[in-house]
Design a protein that fits this description.
Elements lengths: L2 H10 L13 E5 L6 H7 L1 H6 L3 E5 L3 H10 L4 E5 H9 L4 E9 L5 E5 L14 E4 L4 H13 L7 E4 L2 H10 L4 E4 L3 H6 L2 E6 H6 L5 E7 H6 L1 H20 L1 H6 L1 H11 L3 H7 L8 H7 L2 H16 L17 H7 L1
Parallel strand pairs: 1-2, 1-3, 6-7, 6-8
Antiparallel strand pairs: 3-10, 4-10, 5-8, 5-9
Length: about 325
């Protein structure tokens, strides 16, 4: 069963009733994207602020996080805007409550040296790997549309980041649109054809986000307020001195350990995204993000990746906890 089908199966099941944070803590799903909040995670700042034990579970893709959230195993998860659009379109009772980054050069389409790909038209007939229903999948499809390259004439393979790195090493694929740590591995013997920073300028921006099950959010508003506050503080530290933050050996080592990236990759990639302040997020987590999710969902439907659309994506986005943290 493919991961999109797995997500559909979970969403079609009855949504498991949530509970308050138990004595044994709360399980939170994170991914390997490079961002400043990994420092706060490594330092235990979330546990200190909430007063709760947090069981951090690493996942390789947003589709896997969505499946875990839908099953009831995980109440909070880190995903991209494309998996959010797909899950919301299928009716998963979740809300986006925080943005961890406006994605830029930290996600990129890399083509292998010697693959014969020097321009977008050369992608026809080539094997390009990407995790399905991820932000990179959406960005790849949007890039092909921008370049007027028929996606049906490109062999797009559904692989997880670790599988992409292995397939690249074997020489099985010609290119990949992916994030760290796989991005660093493929870029070592390839060249960047485009990045999500450029695709965003073409009208298809993508975001890294935190989502929460609605039932958990209703029972644990203070936990989420503190979670938001911790993230906002580390983003503020970064934005005051991006170069200093990215060159700090301790910060870099903590992020590298959690993401599996090399220290030099962390230093290079941290400036690749934008990390909005909480004040900026309060505005972003209204109509701008609702529109972005709706536009993403409509594009995915046009590509046959989701079956139907919601009349509105407003219920899937909230700035409630950001506003509480700002107060």
């Amino acid at each position: 069963m493919t991961r999109p089908a797995l997500v559909s199966l979970f969403v079609s099941l009855a949504f498991v009733a949530g509970t308050a944070v138990a004595d044994d803590g709360v399980t939170i799903a994170f991914q390997t994207g490079v961002d400043p909040s990994k420092v706060a995670q490594a330092d235990g700042d979330y546990e200190k602020a909430t007063g709760k034990k947090i069981n951090w579970r690493k996942f390789e893709s947003g589709a896997e996080v969505i499946a875990a959230v839908a099953s009831g195993d995980v109440p909070i998860g880190n995903i991209g805007s494309s998996p959010l659009a797909a899950a919301a379109s299928r009716g998963l009772p979740i809300q986006t409550f925080l943005v961890t980054g406006v994605i830029g050069e930290s996600e990129a389409l890399v083509v292998r040296n010697g693959s014969g790909i020097s321009k977008p038209a050369d992608l026809v007939g080539k094997k390009i790997a990407v995790p399905y229903v991820s932000t990179t999948h959406y960005s790849l499809l949007a890039a092909l549309k921008h370049w007027k390259v028929d996606a049906g004439k490109v062999t797009i393979l559904n692989l997880r980041p670790s599988e992409i790195a292995a397939a690249w090493q074997r020489g099985d694929i010609d290119g990949a649109y992916v994030w760290e740590p796989a991005l660093g591995k493929v870029r070592a013997s390839g060249k960047v054809l485009t990045s999500s920073a450029e695709v965003g300028k073409w009208g298809a921006p993508t975001y890294d986000l935190w989502i929460v099950r609605q039932d958990f959010a209703a029972r644990n508003p203070d936990f989420l307020k503190q979670f938001v506050s911790v993230t906002g503080k580390v983003f503020e530290r970064y934005n005051k001195d991006p170069k200093g933050f990215a060159s700090n050996a301790a910060n870099v080592a903590k992020i590298a350990r959690l993401t599996g990236s090399k220290p030099e990759e962390v230093t290079a990639l941290l400036p690749g995204n934008i990390y909005p302040s909480l004040a900026e997020q309060s505005k972003l987590l209204q109509q701008p993000l609702v529109k972005a999710v709706g536009d993403t969902a409509a594009f995915l439907k046009s590509q046959g990746k989701v079956d139907s659309l919601q009349p509105s994506y407003t219920p899937y986005v909230t700035n409630q906890f950001i506003n509480a943290a700002l107060r």
